[in-house]
Amino acid sequence: MTAAREEILRRIRAAAVPPAPEPPRHYLRHAPGLDPDDREAVLALFVERLEEYGAEVLRTDRPGPAVARVLAAQGARSLVVPDGVPAEWTADWDGRVRTDRPPLGKAELDATDAVLTGCAAAVADSGTLVLDGGPGQGRRAATLLPDLHVCVVRAEQVRSALPGALARLDPARPLTFVSGPSATADIEMIRVKGVHGPRRLAVVLLS
Amino acid sequence: MTRSFLGWPAFPEAAEREVGNRQLRENLGRATGTIRGKRALLAAERPDWEQLRDSAAAIKDQVLAGLEQYLLQVEEKVTAAGGTVHWARDAAEANRIVTDLVRATGEREVVKVKSMLTEEIGLDAALEAAGISARETDLAAAIVQLGDDLPSHVVVPALHRNRTEIRDIFVREMGRHGRPAPEGLTDDPAELADAARLHLREKFLGAKVAVSGANFVVAETGTLVVVESEGNGRMCLTLADTLISVVGIEKTVPTWADLEVFLQLLARNATGERMSPYTSTWTGTTDGDGPRAFHLVLVDNGRTRALADPVGRQALRCIRCGACMNTCPVYRRTGGHAYGSVYPGPIGAILNPLLKGLDEEQTASLPYASTLCGACNEVCPVRIRFTDVLLDLRAQVADGGKHPVERAALGAVGAVMARPAAWKAAVKGAGLVGPLLPARTPVPGWTDNRALPDVPRESFRSWWKRNEGERA
After folding, report:
1. What does B26-68 look like in DSSP terms, one character per residue?
2. Which residues form the LUD domain (chain A) (predicted)?
3. Does any CB of chain A come closer than 8 Å to the CB of residue B283?
4. Model pTM above 0.95
């Protein structure tokens, strides 16, 4: 093993690649054509991009009724709620709520209709949510196996473009960037929504 | 048995067979046409597209210039985060490491995230020989595996198959490897995707070991990145107890912030999306979330050979978006199999010779699988100058005597040009006999794939002497 390591490193040195200049960074740090300080425009773009990729979006200042409405509309009867999700978010729903403590088995998660989480950051330009496993987001399996993911995003979490979001994330945590529901274009490059990940994605945008 | 490109014929022969397949040409034309349209729209949406390309190319050059340091950083950070790093000089060594790691778990089945590197090294076949079944979970990779087929595109390995062919493969094969295709399955893409979901669900839920590649490895933090659409990647990366990631040494990027460049380019250029539905990143292992054991296998397998080529090393910037093949007039007619490698199209025409050398006739034929139109240069997100590398490799082939006709012809021309009198006589003679030749004079090995230009009646020398020469 060590021999392989030494040999590869020796080959790299032998290739004698000359030093490279410092990369230029002249690309935009915000969504094109948008004033990043115009919060309403940033949020409008976020909603537009989410809907374009087939996510359902509700804008509200009262999360409880919005979450209940989404779950009812999608016919969900059971819901996984990770630690740290505010009780207010599920207060208006009368279906079955399961915590993930002690951790649910894969089969139990698979048999649950929906999962409700917050997020660590969001990106307007690409309609992206980022989960980092922090409070209210749960471990990765819990946001993967239920077929409906309902994500509550606070308006101030939405950055206009990816650079602003990446700078706020901790790479030491396992991160999942979600841009619309699961999809594939593997058959004749035609986009089909819904394969292995949650086939339905609903976002409750709190402002 | 797993098929491979071993012993594949040289490009002209393989291409001749493929272009005769009308169904294939139709499938290719439709799929590449769709994706080119989507990509063009999404690239045009960014006013800073050229600046993103500038940054991406320069960051990758920085990686290649400091590769030793970056790899040592990866090793240090991954180890500190609870992972184990392995190094593999070649395909056999990489396959041995992965096989031993799977054996140590006692498992007989692994689930796989699509990885071109594991295709390159023939990992599925190596595992199968060790009695371990490796199941592909990406839809296109599963179509290829179930059909005992070979990949023909780096993003959509089953690009050469249409919906009806895919339906037939699912109906015929799914039952042999687990849950059969649903009764009465049609060729509607949504139904086909659903059949894949049902077939693979039980495999994900039971998976103990997963094998992946990675789109990027961040040196600064030891973070691996997988970009995907379906969620099969998330399933494998999250649900298995042991995760083995097999990654080429050139996949490194220096810093976390560098991802803002590549993640904004990759999906737009590959599938015409702003971001792919899922991007997963992980650093070592995390208590209570995901695999308990993580192994990173860093693979050379010819990459240091390419690195030593001053012109060709830019091919190692490649982030496998597939745009060069979607736009290539050669690929769009021959398809991927003609290239005899998991890396087809323009990137395959340069990367395969750089990784493997030019000793084999098949590999030496690839730099000629191009019209040099340069469309690939224009769409490449990391600004690989394909035409520069193709020409340089052709020169290496000619110098190495791997294209005997070209070498003989150029040798003869060189000898005559070195003697002005002989050259003068030769061009004069050609002008005299030119009109007497049939329009399509065959020159074996040269005119098989090229038209011979008409020989002008008068040489440039004689024309110059007659016109300008008199004024001087």
Report:
1. HHHHHHHHHHHHHHHHHHHT-TTHHHHHHHHHHHHHHHHHTHH
2. 108-206
3. yes
4. no
Q: Residues A87, A90, A91, A94: is their CA dihedral positive or negative?
A: negative
The dihedrals phi and psi of B248, each to the nearest 5 degrees, come to: -70, 145
Residue B404: C-alpha distances to residues A43, B165, B362, B391 (Å) = 64, 41, 14, 17
Mutant choice from A109, A137, A196 vs B, greatest count of B C-beta within 10 A: A196
Do B103 and B244 share a domain, yes or no? yes
Domain A38-206 in CATH 3.40.50.300: no
Question: At residue A99, what are phi and psi to the nearest 5 degrees?
Answer: -85, 170
Q: Which residues of B touch A180 (CB under 8 A)?
A: 277
Tokens at residue B264, please? 């904004």
**Whether pLDDT at A110 is above 90:** yes
| CB within 8 Å: B274 and A195 | no
Pairing of strands B209-212, B223-228: unpaired
Predicted confidence band of residue B325 (pLDDT cuts 50, 70, 90) = very high
B231 neighbors A133 (Cβ within 8 angstroms): no
Considering only CB atoms, A177 lies closest to which of B88, B275, B283, namely: B275
Range of the domain at B433: 419-471
In sign, the C-alpha dihedral spanning B303, B306, B308, B311 is negative
d(CA B196, CA B143): 9
Contacts of A135 in chain B (CB under 8 A): none
Q: Which residue in A123, A182, A189 is closest to B277 by CB distance?
A: A182
Average pLDDT over residues B230-256: 98
pLDDT level of residue B97 (50, 70, 90 thresholds)? very high
* Token pair recorded at residue A182: 């699961």
Is B217 a residue whose pLDDT tops 70?
yes
Residue A193 main-chain phi, psi, to 5 deg = -85, 135
- Can you read off the two tokens belonging to residue A161? 């473009």
Residue A132 pLDDT > 60, yes or no?
yes
Phi-psi region of B380 (alpha: psi -120 to 50; beta: other; left: phi over 0): beta
Domain at B113, CATH number? 3.40.50.10420
Instruction: Tell if the CB–CB gap between A28 and B282 is shorter than 8 Å.
Output: no
- Check whether residue B295 and residue B432 sit in a common domain: no
- Chain A residues inside the 8 Å CB shell of B286: 133, 173-174
CB B320, CB B345: distance < 8 Å: no
- Contacts for B279 with CB less than 8 Å, ≥ 6 apart: A175, A176, A177, A179, B225, B226, B227, B228, B263
Phi, psi of B159 (to 5 degrees): -55, -30
